[in-house]
Amino acid sequence: MLWPLRKSPTWNEINYWALDLETSGLEASDQILSVGMVPIRGGVIEFGAHYYSLVRPVRPGALSVEGIRAHHILPNELEAAPPLAQVLEEITQRIGRDVLVLHCGSIDLGFLRQSHKALGRRWVRPVVVDTAVLLARLDERRRQLEPHSKPHPSGLRAARAQLGLPPHLEHHALWDALATAELFLALRHRLQARTLHQLI
Amino acid sequence: MFQPSQHNSAVNPLDFIRAHAPFNLLPAEALEQVERGLEIAFFPKNSKVLARHGSKSQHLYMIRKGTARLERDGQTMMYLEEGEVFGYPSLISQGTPAFDVIAEEDLLIYRWSEQVFRELKRHQPFAEFFTKGLAARLRLVAQQEGLAVSPIDLSLPVSELVTRPPVFIARNATVQEAAKAMREHQISSILVEGNPLGILTDRDLRNRVLAEGKGPQTPLADVMSTPAKTLPASTPLFEALTFMVHQSIHHLPLEQDGRIVGVVTDTVFMRQQARSPLHLLRRLERTRNPEDLKGYSQELSGIAESLLAGGLGASEIGRSVSSLNDHLVRTLLRLAEECLGPPPTPYAWIVFGSEGRMEQALLTDQDNALIYAEDSPEAQRYFAELAGFVVGGLIQAGFPPCPGGYMATRWCKPIAEWQKLFLHWVKMPTPQELLEAQIFFDFRSVHGELPLEPLERIVATSGEETIFLAHLAKASLHFRPPIGLFRRIREEDGGVDIKKGGIAPIVSLARVHALEAGSLAKGTVERLKIAAQENKLSPEGAETLIEAFGFLMRIRLRQQLTNLRQKLPPDNKIRLEQLSSLERRHLKEAFLQVREMQEAMSQRFHTDRLG
User: Which UniProt keywords apply (chain B) (predicted)?
Assistant: First the structure.
């Protein structure tokens, strides 16, 4: 995707939303259980403006109890949660024209696209920075200097540990989104990326 | 209690923040504000977070991960670690930062805007963290702990325990009339009118009337205690308790505006507190044989534990423990004298070191000695046996023998020899000797008739001997706070030796300055106060050392009680990970203060010029 301006803006002039979805599984038939979003503005994470919500399942019968429990969610919490349409509206309103920051984003993007389609909503793919891609780029660069260096692990937790970031509470949409946002800031520095273009 | 810091486990931001000072001082309802205002920034290694003389700080910062370095003119002044806050002095003063704050390694930083900071400061304890000096902040920690468990507030005035007005009887009454009045009012003691005040108790009726074969018509005035020992009604509960233990009395009349407002008895204390020092005192009174003393030390630590839980400071607990141990020694000496007969010449049993200063932790080594008046072969034999009896009894009671050998079994001399010894230390000091002998300058007589003025005179005038003071100052620099390069606390063998690193240096600093001021005071806090009054120490310096001393003593006591509960020997090692982050920070500051005061003293006495 081309940036509408001739010159790519400096990375920290852009507003980002780190986003994470917890889902009942990885198949197309699986459902979104929760979403966490944390904004990055002026290069700083504004945690206070985060968004976190559970999602009322479209097909409650199809959920396995184990699948839910892995995300520290109780079935009755899901029943009381807002419906998917409302949550999608909250998500898209927040993103607006901002950039999405995802870790291994193809899965989350797939679910977002899929759910929009299922509800007959319009989905415009935002500009995405994928921290897993940034990690791969960092490895590539390192291999040019040290051909036999080991690649960074691609898991969120392991990658953070390698970059000196503290352990976080995993499998929770909000904490994973925040963990992704912090990882993004660390990777941005390692890659010495100055413009958005260098990050996407 | 404080939450332990969670270095290695996953934790969400808010839990991390509220586990660290000063956010742990905020009420729960303020945490929402903390969360709403939270910003997270990343500063790569070697980048500058704040610049000295640069623009003023816009935020309150807390380190989430990594280490920051405070620099002044390129010189590292201090390291800040996870959970520590910075940026606030500039925020408060609206001035430029006093240091460069540089990322020693990649820094993950939590921060809050000036506006959020100002709103949070509406909460008093949180605000005090930033505005008060070290001394005040240490008090804040102590208060926090006190809040955790508080079965009984021993700082309340003792008059709170008075349940009825006092009962008086005329001075010319008989013991029978007194006994009738006591039965009528259902009281165990009665006050006797007149000046000075008298008192008659159940115990007096038994011991001084019945046991002596006296009749009911015996004049009350013959058997009462007068003047009765009294205390002001406003005296804190704890002090009244210590006084009663100290004086071996069971009934205490309380005085207010020149009249008696009531009498408290020790049974009231017993109701107030199951593990009361008075219980142990009574046990000592019943002791007939050193064998009966088994379990004394366990009971003592139980008392210390309940006093600590009751919110008492370490110095009050130290005084209480020392009073009880004094009583133990007196009990043993009484038994020894019963065994060996009366002494051939007057003597004094002295204690020194922490016992002399009344700053005993739970189980200190024995530090005692014996001084007697006239030398003779008979005296030598008698006092050797007396010392052996008491030292053996102390071992029975659970006091380990002193490894340095400062026990009355070895230190048993006529006063003339003691005078020579003290004069030698004062007039011809050698560094090694003084290092060991300095604790003798904390001596206190626990029992015996022999006056010790000759020794006290030498101690009181020792401050005029400049060489002596310089050597004593040098000896006090023997132990240094375990602060490493760049002001980090050094752990050795799995912990920080809080005695060598902090308590002992403060104790010896106080001793040097008090002797310099010509004072005979023994307690460290009292010595520091006197040193400040006599301008040997700045009032701020003295106050800071007093607070640091109380803080260190308290942490040590808590650790030792924990050890005992886990059936481990009590020692002076503190593991940093067992402290809250606020305590770790204060420990560091306390050590830094001690080091600073040691340096000041070194310069003042030119200790570097001594061999």
Answer: CBS domain
Domains of chain A, earliest start first: 11-198 (3.30.420.10)
CATH of B158-263, one of 3.20.20.150, 3.10.580.10, 3.90.190.10, 3.40.50.150: 3.10.580.10
Please give the Cα distance from B503 to B524 (Å, whole number): 10
Show which of residues 96-155 on chain A sit within 8 Å of chain B, judged by CB atoms.
Answer: none
Could you tell me if A171 lies within 8 Å of chain B, comparing CB atoms? no
Average pLDDT of chain B is: 85
- Fold category of B13-131 in CATH: Jelly Rolls (2.60.120)
Give pLDDT tens digits for B449-498.
Answer: 999 999 999 999 998 998 899 999 988 888 899 988 777 888 887 789 99
- Assigned CATH for B474-609: 1.20.120
In the DSSP assignment, the letter for residue A170 is -
Given this model, what pLDDT does residue A152 score? 78
- For tokens 């920034």, what's the residue? B41
Q: Does A78 touch chain B (CB under 8 A)?
A: no
One-letter identity of residue B441? F
- Domains of chain B, by residue range, sit at 13-131, 158-263, 474-609
Closest chain B residue to the Cα of A41, Cα to Cα = B39
Which ipTM value was assigned to this complex?
Answer: 0.91
Say if residues B394 and B290 touch (Cβ distance below 8 Å).
Answer: no
Interface of B with A in 11-40 (CB under 8 A): 11-13, 35-40
Alpha carbon B275 to chain centroid, angstroms? 20
Q: Do A169 and B12 touch (CB under 8 A)?
A: yes
Contact at CB, B35 and A48, closer than 8 angstroms: yes
Q: Is the Cβ–Cβ distance between B332 and B340 less than 8 Å?
A: no
